[in-house]
Amino acid sequence: MRMTEQRRVIARVLSSAEDHPDVEELYRRASSIDPHISIATVYRTVRLFEEAGVVEKHDFGDGRSRYEEAGDDHHDHLIDTKTGEVIEFFDAEIEKLKSEIAERLGFELIGHKLELYGVPIDGAEPSKREGLIFKRHAARVAPEDVDAG
């Protein structure tokens, strides 16, 4: 893939994103850096990046594809359906269980995606989850758009 200057701008925007932006948000951010970038360019570039394994596409139930830079650090997602906050987490027990289930079914696990949807429990101790949280993101998914079922 040829890296044009506009693709570089889009790559930098994705790389610096602390959330999971959709194409429209990527366009807004990229066009503030380079006003000559069109939304069509962002759509094409994101598709190319996805095909090349540079970005991962997610659907958090709000009807829009969201993107994040592909990385070596595996994590799962918990989406707060009240606020839209996306919490990235890693839990070794869950990872082990997924592998064990695949093995019992006669498969070697080569990949998976886990998205959990929920609401905070009143009075829950945040300290109990601190060891699991990989990264927290502010509300980026509109809660009224989330289809948790």
- The CATH architecture category of the largest domain equals 2-Layer Sandwich
Indicate how many domains the architecture comprises.
2
Tell me the CATH topology of the largest domain: Dna Ligase, domain 1
Q: Major sheet: size, sense and barrel closure?
A: 4 strands, mixed
CATH class of the largest domain: Alpha Beta
* Shape descriptor: globular
Cα separation of the termini:
38 Å
Helix count from the secondary structure assignment: 4
Runs in which pLDDT lies below 50 for 5 or more consecutive residues are 136-149
Q: How much strand? A: 15-25%
The secondary-structure element order is HHHEEEEHEE
Mean pLDDT reading: 80
According to CATH, the homologous superfamily of the largest domain is Ferric-uptake regulator, C-terminal dimerisarion domain
Strand order of the largest sheet: 5-3-4-6
Detailed description of the structure:
The protein has 149 residues and is of the alpha+beta class. It folds into two domains: 5-69, Orthogonal Bundle (Arc Repressor Mutant, subunit A), CATH 1.10.10.10; 76-145, Ferric-uptake regulator, C-terminal dimerisarion domain (Dna Ligase, domain 1, 2-Layer Sandwich). The chain has four helices and six strands. It has helices at residues 5-16, 23-33, 39-51, 92-104, and strands at residues 55-59, 65-69, 76-80, 85-89, 115-118, 133-139. Strands 5-3-4-6 form a four-stranded mixed sheet, with no helix packed on it. A two-stranded antiparallel ribbon has the order 1-2. A hairpin with a 5-residue loop joins strand 1 and strand 2 (65-69). Helix 1 packs across helix 2 (23-33) and helix 2 (23-33) packs across helix 3. The longest helix has 13 residues, at 39-51.
